[in-house]
């Protein structure tokens, strides 16, 4: 051996038919652990591939044990030494192939290309014999070192070998080709594949680069050799070079790379480093574009089957099913419910004792019972898709919501809603709405990307430390310049509940109004600050004051109530805009102000700098 370093490393492989792999796995792992050996052993029906490290006696004991299995009695290894064990654990893994290739009719246990001993290759190169050296390793391995004058195929994965080899020049089919890799195992499959493709004189370097180093040193070789363990690379004397491997991009790193300010262990290196601000901006623009693309498709406008779960509250228990549906969903006519039942589109849900049993109109319902209402060929109303991403970090995201666009699924809208559309872009995250605006209101909507952020922001809203600034265009000219409305609002925004302002039937709500500009056409622009967050709070308070919001389809002038809540795309806009939202960032505590772009109706009348 060329060094007296205390740790002996061995690499070995053999293509041979193996059986009962699970028993082999357990026995080899148990024996190696008992000897104090660490490393990796791969077992597959086609053979074994191993990399082990330990003291001399331990490695000798491990190899002796493995050679007892049928077909492995002549297993040969390539040895080197190191000051430390380059493996953290002892792993024995079962694989489909010991070297992934994906070509089932290549069987190295039956036939391989002729093997060229390392000293014979050196002699050929010393003599200047005409030979085509072909490096079959991956690109990042080649960058660390290879034979002088060798060709490589710029492989990113060994499975790409055949496709890359087909790009070799036509004359290569009649020339001597000597293939090489780290330890020879990849050439066992690459050689027969080349021969099958019509290359006539194919050799493989016996034992690979490591065996060549062991017998011939660094003659005709430039650089070092990548190895698949903690040593990363070996020089021609089989000594670790001190290189590291980037976990992010698998690039081999020099000492200069590691001391660079663009290296962070386990995350990035100078070869894959990107400025954090550039990464953030790039991710922001990507999400902004994807949100726009998803929203423009208006997926709810393409017919689909919508399945709505329905559960029975206590107060409806004992009613016939049809009566329950009519009372629970007054917006759907009795005839529509009868048709749904007759067509079999109302079933018991799968959690019941008889899954998906079709319902009957007169069956008696019970508390907590569940049904599924299937609505084939569902088509939702069109929306304004011009959603704009205005802020994003790892905790929060904020959008400028257009109108009409419902924030969350309900009623006629499921897929054509803000949260459903955002969920298609942030598909691996659970987004939490921090606050809501109604479908007809434009402006800032804030969501969190982490549950912790949602919890902390909810506390800010509860304490009243969040500043919300809206602008509204009201009917009439108020007698006041500033007004604070403090009255209760019922939970239900429609029907008689919309008229309730007493504490018995609602919750206290406080809204500040400030006149910005009285317009000659009998309208007034006001700045609004809701100090609480009740459903339709600004709209109800403005309506109660006798100055409803312009374009509101529900709270109409002269104290009247409309019969719908969500505007159609072609309707004139409801002139209420969530202009600005200011919070303390839930993680760093810094004050953060999120601003939206004023819609057309507001931009034309909003004073400069407001």
Explain this structure:
This protein is an alpha+beta fold and 610 residues long. It is 23% helix and 26% strand. It has 4 domains: 88 residues, Alpha-Beta Plaits, CATH 3.30.70.100; 128 residues, 3-Layer(aba) Sandwich (Oxidized Rhodanese, domain 1), CATH 3.40.250; 76 residues, RNA-binding S4 domain (Structural Genomics Hypothetical 15.5 Kd Protein In mrcA-pckA Intergenic Region, Chain A); 216 residues, Pseudouridine synthase (2-Layer Sandwich), CATH 3.30.2350.10. It has 15 helices and 29 strands. Strands 20, 21, 22, 23, 24, 25, 26, 27, 28 and 29 form a 10-stranded mixed β-sheet that branches. The protein has a 5-stranded mixed β-sheet with strand order 4-1-3-2-5, with helices on both faces. It has a 5-stranded parallel β-sheet with strand order 6-11-10-7-9. The chain is elongated. About 2% of the residues have low confidence.
């Amino acid at each position: 051996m060329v060094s007296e370093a205390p740790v002996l490393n061995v690499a070995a492989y053999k293509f041979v038919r193996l059986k009962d792999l699970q028993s082999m796995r357990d026995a080899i792992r148990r024996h190696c652990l008992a000897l104090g050996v660490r490393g990796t052993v791969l077992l597959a029906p086609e053979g074994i591939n191993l990399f082990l490290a330990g003291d001399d006696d331990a490695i000798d004991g491990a190899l002796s044990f493995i050679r007892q299995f049928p077909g492995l009695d002549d297993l040969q290894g390539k040895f080197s030494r190191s000051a430390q064990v380059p493996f953290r654990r002892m792993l024995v893994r079962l694989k489909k192939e010991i070297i992934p290739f994906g070509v089932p009719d290549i069987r190295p246990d039956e036939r391989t290309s002729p093997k060229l001993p390392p000293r014979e290759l050196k002699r050929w190169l010393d003599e200047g014999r005409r030979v085509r050296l072909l490096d079959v390793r991956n690109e990042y391995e080649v960058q660390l070192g290879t034979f002088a004058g060798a060709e490589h195929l710029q492989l990113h994965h060994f499975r790409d070998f055949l496709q890359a080899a087909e790009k070799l020049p036509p004359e290569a089919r009649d020339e001597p080709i000597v293939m090489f890799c780290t330890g020879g195992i990849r050439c066992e499959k690459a050689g027969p594949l080349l021969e099958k493709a019509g290359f006539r004189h194919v050799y493989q370097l016996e034992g690979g680069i490591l065996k060549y180093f062991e017998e011939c040193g660094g003659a005709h070789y430039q650089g070092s050799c990548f190895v698949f363990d903690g040593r990363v690379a070996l020089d021609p004397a089989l000594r670790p070079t001190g290189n590291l491997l980037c976990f992010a991009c698998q690039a081999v790193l020099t000492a200069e790379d590691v001391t660079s300010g663009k290296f962070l262990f386990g995350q990035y290196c100078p070869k894959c480093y990107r400025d954090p601000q550039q990464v953030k901006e790039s991710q922001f623009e990507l999400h902004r574009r994807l949100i726009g693309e998803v929203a423009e498709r208006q997926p709810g406008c393409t017919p689909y089957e919508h399945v709505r779960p329905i559960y029975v509250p206590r107060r409806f228990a004992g009613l016939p099913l049809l009566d329950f549906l009519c009372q629970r969903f007054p917006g759907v006519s009795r005839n529509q419910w009868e048709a749904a039942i007759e067509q079999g589109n109302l079933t018991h849900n799968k959690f019941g004792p008889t899954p998906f049993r079709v319902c009957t109109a007169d069956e008696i319902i019970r508390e907590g019972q569940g049904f599924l209402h299937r609505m084939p060929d569902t088509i939702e109303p069109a929306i304004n898709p011009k959603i704009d991403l205005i802020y994003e970090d790892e905790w929060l995201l904020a959008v400028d919501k257009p109108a009409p666009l419902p924030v969350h699924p309900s009623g006629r809208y499921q897929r054509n809603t803000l949260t459903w559309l955002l969920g298609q872009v942030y598909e691996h995250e659970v987004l939490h709405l921090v606050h809501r605006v109604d479908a007809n209101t434009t402006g800032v909507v804030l969501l969190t990307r982490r549950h912790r952020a949602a919890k902390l922001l909810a506390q800010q809203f509860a304490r009243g430390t969040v500043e919300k600034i809206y602008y509204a265009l009201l009917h009439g000219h108020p007698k006041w310049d500033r007004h604070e409305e403090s009255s209760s609002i019922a939970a239900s925004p429609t029907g008689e509940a919309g008229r309730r302002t007493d504490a018995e039937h609602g919750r206290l709500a406080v809204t500040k109004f400030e006149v910005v500009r009285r317009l000659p056409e009998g309208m007034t622009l006001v700045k609004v600050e809701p100090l609480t967050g009740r459903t339709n709070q600004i709209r109800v308070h403005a309506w109660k004051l006798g100055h409803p919001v312009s374009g509101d389809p529900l709270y109409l002038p002269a104290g009247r109530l409309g019969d719908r809540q969500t505007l159609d795309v072609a309707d004139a806009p409801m002139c209420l805009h969530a202009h600005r939202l200011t919070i303390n960032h839930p993680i760093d505590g810094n004050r953060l102000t999120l601003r939206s772009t004023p819609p057309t109706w507001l931009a034309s009348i909003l004073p400069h700098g407001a």
